[in-house]
Each structure stands twice: as C-alpha cells, then as structure tokens.
Write a structure and sequence with these properties.
The chain has 872 residues and is of the alpha+beta class. The chain has 26 helices and 28 strands.
Length: 872
C-alpha cells in the first residue's frame, strides 16, 4: 500500500461505538419496559377482580423477565468490552503494508524489435502467485463487478454489514453454515490472516479487525488490496496473474464481459474455473450473467453495456470460448469441440503457440534462477543455517527462496522466440531418435534416451538467449540440467585450447604444416590412428578440418600445455578445469578433461571468434530490482581481449572450411555463413558440435546418462544445431564474418608451409601450392626448400593396383621414425628422399582410436577425403 494513500479515519474509535451501542440498547429496553407496564395498568383498570388478579401475577413475571434481560444485556456488554480490551486491542489488527510485500517475482525479456522489456513469467513460493497493481490500473468494470456481487453496500458501511453479520451469527448459533454477511473488508481480513474457522470467536475477531481496518485505510485502498489478494484458482492470487492465466492479457485490457467472467471465479475456483472442463466453463457463464445482472440492477452499467457484454463470446487462454467453441492458432473458429485440456497441464490444441512445459520453468529460466541465487549469496554473504528440526538450510536454498518470495523484477537475457524454437526441436524425440539400454542396480535392462544439451550465446554481449538441458519435454523443476553441468567435449576443444593461442603468440601461423605422425608416450605409440595409418606432413587447415589428433597434440606441446590451460581459464572463462588438466597434453589438446566443460562455456568461448577476439562472460540476467524498484544486482558485461582480431579472423576462415568440407558438414544450412568444430570422446560416449554464425554461437552436446556408447547416423549434435539455428536465422540476412587490417593471403607450399616455389607446383602428386590466410606480422618469409628439382621418378599405384610412373619433385625431408614399430604407415613416406615406394590414397573406413589413460578424441569417425583431390 503506497504511503501517500494511507491515512487514519476521523470516525469515533471502536470502544466509543461499543459503549454507545450498549447504552442505546439499555435505554430502548427500559423504555419498552415502561410502555409495557403502562399498557398493563390500563388493562387492569378495565378488568374484573379475577382478571386483575391473574394479570397482576403475569405482569410481575413479565417485568421480572424484562429486568433480567436488561441486566443480562448490560452485563454482556461489559464483558464484551472487557474481552475486546483484554484479548484483541493491539494484538489482532491487520496492517496492509505488511501484506503487500508478499508478491511474486517478475521475469522480463527484451523484445528484440522494440527493445521494450516484457514480462514473460512470475516466480512464487507456496503456490501463491501474485503481482501487485494499483487500483487505477484495474478496469473500473472489474472494480464494479467485485462490489456488485460481493458487497453492494461497500461504499456506505464502515467495514461490517450488521444485517448480514447478525444473520451469520444466528446461523452459527443454531448449528447451520454461515451464509454470506461478509463484506469486502471482512473478506480481505480473512484472506490476509488465513483465519477460516467457523466459530463465533473468529467472527467477532473478524468484525473487530474490519472496523479497525476501515479506520486506518480508505475505501480505494481496501478495494485495491482485495483485488490484489483474492484467489482465482491455479495458484493465481490477484487480478493481474489471474488475467494472464485465463485471458493471456494484461488486466488493464480486460473487457466488461471478461471482468464479469473473471470475478465469477473467486466464489469457488474449482467450480467456476472456465479452463478446467466444459462443466466449469458453463458454470462460469452462468456466474458471469449473474454478475452482469447485478451490475445492471445496481446501476453500474447501462442496458446497452449489459447486452454487448452478454453477447461477447470471450476467448480463454486454452483456446475455448465461453460458449464452447474453439479458436485455433490461426484464428479459425470451430463449433465442434476438440478434446478438452485436463487439469494435469498436458498439451491441448490451444498450446500450439507455447511450448509445453510440465515443470513451471524452462531450462533457461531454471539456470537463470540459479545464477541469481549464486549472486545473492555472494552479495549478501549468506551462510548455511540449521533449522529447528536439525536439517541444514543451505545458503543457496535461502537465496533460491529469496528469488521466489521477495517480489523482485529480474531482467533476463532470454529471447523467447529462440527459446521456443530450441524447445520445439529438442522436445520432439523424432529429432533425437536414439536410445540404448543399460543394466540397473536390480539387474534389469532399462532403456535410456540419448540426452541433449544446447546453449546459444550472443557474441556481442554474452547474452544466453536460449538453453536446453535435456531431451524431450521437461518433466519437473530443479532437475539435472546437462547444459550447465560439465561433460567431455573431445576435439571441439582444439580451436580454443590449442590452435587459437598458438596462432596468437606465433607458435604457428595460418600456413603452418604439422606432421601427422605419432610419438612415444610412456612407452606407447600415441595418439594412435585407425590401423596405424597417418597422413604425414599436413597443412593446418587440413589438420583442423579432419581433426587430426597428432597435429593437435604436437601443436599443444609446442605452445605449452600449462599455457594452454591458462589461456582457457584466464582468457576464455573456463571454470571446471583442474590442475590435473593443466599437466596432461591429452586433456588440453584433445578435450579429455578430468571433469569436463559446459555448453555455456563452450558457446561463449567460440563467440570470441565472432566478436573480433573479445571474450564476454556468458550471462542469463542483466539486473535485479527489489519490489520498490531499487537495483540490488547489476550484472554488467565482463569482456576481455582473449586474442588478436587477426587470430580470430584466421580461426573463422579455418573453421568455415571445417564446417563446410570437414567433420562439421552435417551442420550446414543454406543462406548463412557457418563455422564450427565437432567433438567426440573415446568409444563415442559423448558427441559434440560447437558452431557459430556472424550472429550467434551455439554449443550442442549429446550423451547417455549412464555413459553408453552412442550409435547414431552421423553426429546428432550437428543435426540439432542445423535444425535449431536454421530456424533462428530464417529471417536474418546472410553476412560474412568480420574482416580486419593486418591480414594477408600468400601462396604457400602444402608440405613445408613456406612460400611456394615453382618446384612445389611440380610435385609428383600434382601441384602442392595453395593460398593461405595469415597475419601479416606472422607470415612465412622464406621460399620452400623442401621440394627438390622435378627430376625424380615415382611409381604411383591407385586403389585398383594400377601402377603409373610419374616424374616430378619429391620432398627433401627426413622424418624421425619410432623404432620397432614398422606397422606404422605414413602416407607421404614414398615422397621422402630415401623413402619407400608406398601407396597414396586408399583410406580405411574404420576409425576407432585408442588413447592411453582414457583420454578422449574426436573426428576419426569421420571419413577423410583423398588429400590430392581435397587440395585440388
């Protein structure tokens, strides 16, 4: 209740009223007794002696009874006043300012077209969903409807309708149910206090409270409180949440017909809720007409207004009209009713416009609540408490309850349109048609659905615009959210942990060549490719597109494993990495982390490539205000320069190739520039894809809860990315990634990474010259010395065994071979001076990879194209 509206009434105090009433009753009783006595005396004078004797006796009896009545009434009045003084005064009064703080928290998202903040949901505790609104924002029709049906003398009485109250007390004394009699003021008192006992004591207390309330507050304040407090069913308290629940509109926009229908629910929501069934909808119609009739009878509306409201076929939020017709999402009206929604919130035809969520919160909203709760714990230094029953009330739980029960306004980063698109895709299990079985603790075979996690981030500001934490419809609140819990990402880590930092400090450049050949690790050959086959000297763009593990490991070692860890933690905001990770090249280069990473972390890290090398910490909310509009949490953008803009531009160039011709090809959709990288773990227990456009970065993970091997056609993550992101970008114009100064394109040798010579074009395999994008300050400066003069003859054999003799240049390069492992096949060995006549091409399809200590890899499950054709 606003302070400038509250004032105390100047009417006599309550005890004065009680004393005046008692004296009035006593005077009336004495006057009545005198009248009866006078009339009796007149009759006595006209009676016979026998009659006089009889009436004399009767008069004495009646007089005695009247005297007893008056004395009893006087004693009762004294006792009643003493009772009021001793048990109520100063103890049971109601103060509306205390009640007003019990309002729901409001969640807002920003309309991307208008920039306006729009409320999309409320949070509340104890099933009490209420948003306070001022009386001037409540339609006059709704105010009049409440008065007409609940308390037609509301403007005249002082809190109690004595006639109705007397009737209610008499009914109670004779063991009958109390029938009516409660004014709006009394109903407000009852609802605020929660006192619903059917006793005389409760009724007397209620009367006292109502009289006192009307001395403290004006009529409009009481009516405002009543309309904000009344229960409308489905956890809705007050007209604001009720209007949104039943009509999907703001209360200020309600028509007369809708106002009457809404007020009709309060009498008995289980009977008059129009969305429960056809029976309750018909009941609501009858109640609506009763209210409209009362408003007409009391002169609150005209006959014309009554007729128009009666004829209006209002539409409820479930798509049904008050007459029983059904209005589809396209606006078509159907006379035949489709199957009606049940009370368990299952999907109905009217739900086409909104995703069906069986829990109250979407995956995004639940993650956002957690982020706000964490921020509140930090800001206020909240600590764990011990409840009276001995259980621990954790700091996080306290903050969670604060988010729900303090009436905050939270301004979120969600894009509701994008969230719905992601839900439509990921809730439909036809888009994730993979299951596996496992044996539970009881020895039973149980089917497991492949799970999905997805996070989409706006690279310019770190806004998390959409999030999915599991496959299929969300079944409950506060369940496991795969999007914000760490899982393995495999080779999807390579661009951010290895190639970007190595490019940024000059360890490599955009034209670098890396030898796809294993090394010894603790006596084992590692990384181990399928059938011991390796490509040999490989250009950077090919190593990334084909996700060659040996190249990532060699680059990470050259850059520094510990430096790679520091880059992820300090420059790209990863929070789940451990000291063990910082010491293991397999963890840092191939994504086999001790704990893992989240899709939120990965989407934000890749977003730095879009944002010219600037990393912005992902966030789900912008600010939080208290119920009075004071900002209590300001979640401003936290941005740092993670890498040079030239580095980001080169990575964009390389990952576009990986998404177009490499392992990420399944993520492609037409009409948009796309870059990205796949990932998978040992034995395919996790699959990953992180992709991005010039607009948004999106990370997708797939895996089973019980870590079964994923057997799927292609990469499920790439397919989900394509379906979600293609819909999001449907109306966005295509554009290229940013360009910047400091870049140059150079013709280089694919085998040495040096500037190309004429001999590079005369390679026996065909020209080895291609154009690489490099940073101008890190470009190759020397001409290739690896290719020899074109005077060598080599026998080339194709997959059918046909041998062709070719003359041209070969490679003046001597690889240091691992002794005792002649089984290792390197495809470019025949090109080496002093090498052997091998076969070029003829790739194998079995791509399982073995890695020591359970390290993880990716992409070797993607077929590798013939290198000569790939480089053209």
């Amino acid at each position: 209740m606003s302070e400038n509206k509250r004032r105390r009434s100047s009417s006599p105090d309550f005890m004065g009223r009680i004393r005046q009433s008692a004296r009035h009753i006593e005077t009336e009783a004495k006057e009545g007794a005198r009248r009866v006595q006078h009339e009796a005396q007149e009759r006595v004078r006209n009676m016979t002696p026998q009659q006089k004797n009889g009436w004399r006796k009767a008069g004495r009896i009646i007089g005695t009874l009247l005297l007893v009545f008056v004395v009893t009434l006087t004693i009762f009045s004294g006792i009643f006043m003493a009772y009021i003084n001793s048990t109520m005064r100063g103890k049971v009064e109601v103060y509306l300012d205390e009640f007003e703080t019990k309002v729901s928290t409001e969640l807002y998202s920003q309309d991307p077209d208008t920039g306006e903040w729009v409320m999309y949901q409320t949070l509340y505790l104890n099933s009490e969903n209420r948003i306070w609104t001022d009386l001037e924002d409540i339609p006059k029709y709704l105010q009049e409807a409440a008065i007409a049906i609940e308390d037609k003398r509301f403007e005249k009485h002082h809190g109690v309708d004595w006639k109705g109250t007397t009737r209610a007390i008499v009914y109670t004394l004779f063991g009958k149910n109390v029938q009516g009699g409660s004014t709006i003021t009394q109903q407000l008192v009852k609802n605020v206090t929660g006192d619903n006992e059917v006793t005389v004591k409760r009724k007397i207390t209620e009367i006292y409270r109502a009289l006192e309330l009307e001395k403290r507050y004006e009529k409009d304040e009481i009516l405002e409180a009543y309309l904000n407090e009344a229960f409308f069913g489905q956890s809705c308290y007050g007209v604001v949440t009720a209007s949104r629940m039943y009509f999907n509109k703001d209360v200020s926009d309600l028509t007369l017909a809708e106002c009457a229908s809404l007020m009709g629910i309060t009498n008995n929501p289980s009977m008059y809720d129009p969305t429960l069934s056809s029976w309750t909808r018909e009941n609501n119609r009858e109640r609506q007409l009763t209210i409209l009739g009362a408003m007409l009878e009391q002169g609150k509306i005209s006959q014309e207004e009554y007729d128009e409201a009666k004829a209006e076929d209002i539409v409820f939020s479930n798509g049904f009209t008050i007459s029983g017709k059904y209005v589809g999402s396209d606006g078509t009206v159907t006379d035949l009713e489709p199957e009606e929604p049940s009370t368990d919130d299952t999907e109905s035809p009217a739900d086409e416009e909104e995703p069906t969520i069986k829990g109250r919160y979407s995956w995004f909203t639940e993650a956002m609540i957690g982020d706000v709760a964490d921020a509140l714990v930090e800001k206020y230094g909240i600590t764990d408490k011990v409840r009276d029953n001995g259980t621990t009330y954790t700091a996080y739980e306290q903050a969670w309850d604060m988010v729900h029960g303090k009436g905050y306004k939270i301004y979120t980063t969600q894009n509701p349109k994008y969230q719905k698109i992601a839900e439509d895709v990921c809730y439909n299990l036809d888009n994730i048609p993979y299951t596996s079985s496992y044996t539970n603790s009881a020895g039973e075979q149980v089917e497991d659905q492949l799970q999905i996690a997805l996070t989409i981030v706006d690279p310019t500001n770190g806004y998390v615009v959409a999030m999915i934490g599991g496959a299929g419809e969300k079944q409950a609140d506060r369940v496991w959210n795969w999007a914000v819990n760490a899982r393995q990402c495999g080779s999807a880590i390579k661009p951010v942990s290895t190639y970007a930092p190595a490019l940024d400090d000059g360890t490599i450049n955009g034209a670098s060549v890396i030898d796809d050949y294993p090394m010894l690790l603790n006596g084992d050959v590692w990384p181990r490719n399928a059938n011991w086959r390796y490509q040999g000297l490989t250009a950077l763009h090919t190593a990334i597109a084909q996700s060659l593990n040996t190249c990532a490991v060699r680059t990470n070692l050259a850059y520094g494993v510990d430096r790679s860890y520091e880059f992820l933690v300090n420059k790209l905001g990863f929070e789940n990495l451990t000291y063990t990770d910082s010491q293991q090249v397999g963890n840092m280069a191939l994504g086999g982390f001790e704990k893992g990473v989240t899709t939120e972390e990965m989407a934000a890290a890749y977003a730095a490539f879009v944002n010219e090398g600037v990393y912005t910490k992902p966030r789900t909310f912008v600010r939080v205000e208290d119920a009075n509009g004071n900002v209590i949490l300001e979640n401003e953008a936290q941005s740092t320069v993670a890498m040079k803009n030239t580095t980001a531009a080169i990575i964009n160039h390389l990952l576009q190739e990986a998404a177009l011709n490499g392992t990420g090809y399944e993520a492609q959709f037409s009409g948009m520039h796309i870059a990205g990288k796949t990932g998978s773990t040992n034995s395919n227990k996790d699959r990953y894809f992180v992709g991005y456009t010039p607009y948004y970065s999106c990370a997708v993970w797939a895996g089973y809860e019980h870590n079964q091997r994923i057997v799927a056609s292609g990469n499920p993550c790439s397919a989900i990315f394509r379906k979600v992101m293609s819909a999001i970008h449907e109306e966005l114009p295509d554009k290229d990634f940013f360009s910047c100064a400091g870049l140059t394109s150079v013709a280089v040798c694919a085998d040495s990474g040096m500037l190309a010579s004429e001999n590079c074009a005369l390679d026996v395999r065909g020209s080895r010259v291609y154009t690489a994008l490099v940073a101008a300050d890190n470009a190759p400066t020397s001409v290739c010395t690896m290719h020899t003069a074109p005077s060598y003859t080599v026998n080339m054999a194709d997959s059918d065994g046909n041998v062709t003799t070719v003359t041209g240049s070969v490679l003046n390069y001597q690889r240091e071979l691992i002794e005792g492992h002649d089984e290792i096949v390197v495809e470019d060995a025949f090109m080496m001076l002093g090498g052997w006549n091998g076969f070029f091409g003829d790739e194998e399809e079995d791509n399982d990879v073995n890695m020591p200590n359970g390290d993880h890899d990716d992409t070797m499950d993607d077929s590798v194209p013939d290198m000569s054709g790939f480089l053209g």
